[in-house]
Amino acid sequence: MHIAVDSSGSQWLVLERIFGKEKGWLQASLANFHKRKYLFLLCDLLALLSILMGLAWTLYPGRIFLQSFPVSMVLLLLAGKGLKFESVAAAPAASRQQLDLFLKMHLALLLVAMVCCLVQLGCALGQMYFLS
User: Fold this and answer.
1) Are 123 and 58 contacting, i.e. CB atoms less than 8 angstroms apart?
2) Which of 1, 31, 88, 131 sees the fewest Cβ atoms within 10 Å?
3) Cβ–Cβ contacts within 10 Å for residue 11, how many?
4) Are 93 and 47 in contact (CB under 8 A)?
């Protein structure tokens, strides 16, 4: 994963080739992210907090009375709006740059939030089917 800058100066987050195919790259414009990076990081943190509270509700339903899964999904969708990936035949390759700190934090928080969301779903399904 790297940032490519095309001839117009636009920055693109570029993933490597999709599933090892010779043609096919995933790229996302970073214009929206750079305009509102603090807002996207706030959405990431709120989504993670909401998911952790929902996980606590799933694990301790008698003590915690908060179901936040719908709010978590809305926050994850808002956080993910900063990076809309699209498939292209060839990646822009005028120059390459490393990922900046804000983009790394955004991607890491999204990854952690999605993993916690899957854990919450697994715990909820486990309680419904195995512990009932």
Assistant:
1) yes
2) 131
3) 20
4) no
Which one-letter DSSP state was computed for residue 67?
Answer: -
Best CA proximity match to 29, nearest among 7, 41, 4, 11: 11
Nearest to 44 by CA among 123, 102, 119: 102
Give the angle 15-106-38 at the CA atoms, nearest 5°. Answer: 130
What are the pLDDT digits (tens) for 70-129? 888 888 888 888 788 887 776 666 567 778 889 899 989 989 988 988 888 888 888 888
Give the SS3 label for residue 68.
coil
- Cβ contacts of residue 48 below 8 Å, gap of 6+? 109, 112, 113, 116
Contacts of 78 (CB under 8 A, 6+ apart): 43, 47
**At 29, which helix (H) or strand (E)?**
strand 25-29
Residue that the structure tokens 């719908």 belong to: 70
This model's pTM is above 0.85: no
